[in-house]
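PROTEIN DESIGN WORKSHEET
SECTION A - STRUCTURE
LENGTH: 150
TOKENS:
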């Protein structure tokens, strides 16, 4: 596998030998600054704790059932937190698997806090976990992910 970096453009070959590239054009749905419909997440990184944290205020545009945040939005928040964490740690990786366990409903117009941390770093995989909590500290969801390093 060959990997080289030119600015924010990453190239590698997949298992079938096809060229793949990742390019950050600031249009990411979760964190892209140019994406008008995106979530515009920002993250605080703790190098000492190897963790990140973000806060998000869900609106009615983020609901599934009336007044309840769509589960896909919550999964996106946690997935992005785990991916952003490994990026801050200097790795180039993408989510290989994601497991989300919902514990309680999240209400629209009530702030959510998402915190992610690394569980284990292996040669090609980074194991991470995340927790999404409501403003009162109640856990809304937990997630674990494996991120594949390129």
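SECTION B - SEQUENCE
RESIDUE ASSIGNMENT:
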């Amino acid at each position: 596998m060959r990997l080289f970096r030119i600015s924010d453009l990453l190239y590698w070959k997949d298992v079938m030998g096809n060229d793949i590239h990742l390019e950050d054009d600031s249009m990411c749905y979760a964190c892209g600054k140019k994406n008008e419909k995106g979530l515009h997440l920002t993250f605080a990184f703790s190098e000492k704790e190897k963790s990140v944290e973000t806060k998000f205020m869900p609106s009615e545009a983020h609901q599934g059932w009336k007044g309840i945040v769509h589960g896909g939005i919550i999964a996106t928040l946690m997935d992005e937190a785990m991916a952003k964490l490994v990026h801050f740690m200097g790795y180039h990786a993408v989510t290989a698997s994601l497991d989300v366990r919902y514990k309680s409903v999240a209400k629209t117009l009530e702030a959510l806090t998402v915190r992610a941390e690394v569980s284990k770093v292996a040669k090609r995989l980074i194991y991470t976990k995340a927790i999404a909590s409501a403003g009162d500290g109640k856990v809304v969801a937990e997630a674990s992910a494996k991120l594949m390093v390129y």
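SECTION C - NOTES
Strands lie at 4-6, 9-13, 19-23, 44-46, 51-56, 93-102, 112-121, 125-134, 139-149.
DSSP finds one helix and nine strands in the chain.
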